[in-house]
Amino acid sequence: DTTNLAFRKRVDETKLAKSKLEEHLAKVMDEVTSQEKNIAALRKAIADKEAPMQVAQTRLGQREQRPNVELCRDPAQYRLVGEVSEISENVQRLQELLYASEMELKGLRRNQLILEEDIEVKANSLHIDEVQCMQLREGINIKSF
User: How many CB atoms lie within 10 A of CB 115?
Assistant: First the structure.
């Protein structure tokens, strides 16, 4: 009888652990979805910076290739150079954020796989304990021995 009670207690503990793992998995899945949206937004932001960068570079190139005009360093030239530099820095920062977000997503996916594996192990343990072992134990009357 004491063994059966201990066995049932262990089954209940396993069920509780499995439910906690499932709750944690749900949170990880939410974080994965959030991170995927963040990565998509970062990629869009990087793509949105491409057109202004091309415009600034084209203007700068046109100024450098004007026929019959000396190359001059006027405020417009400095502003174009500054604009190209600023856009390049912004794109670099966005790419760094994208890389960090992708690494975090990779970690979350790894965590998700570990949790799914642990849940599967717990489910298998519960099946063995509840279905197979408990039925065998209930079929045996220990007091008759």
Answer: 18
Q: Output 96-101 pairs: Cβ under 8 A, ≥24 positions apart.
A: 97/42, 98/39, 98/42, 98/43, 98/46, 101/35, 101/38, 101/39, 101/42
Q: Is 72 left (phi over 0), alpha (psi -120 to 50) or beta?
A: beta
Q: Which residues contact 29 (CB under 8 A, 6 or more apart)?
A: 112
Q: What DSSP character marks residue 68?
A: T
pLDDT tens digits, residue range 12-70? 999 999 999 999 999 999 999 999 999 999 999 999 999 999 999 998 888 888 777 77
DSSP structural state of residue 63: H
Q: What is the DSSP letter of 67?
A: T
Q: How far apart are CA 112 and CA 25, in angstroms?
A: 6
Angle (CA) 97-98-102 rounded to 5° is 115
Please give the C-alpha separations between residue 108 and each of 26, 30, 31, 102, in angstroms, as whole numbers: 12, 10, 8, 10
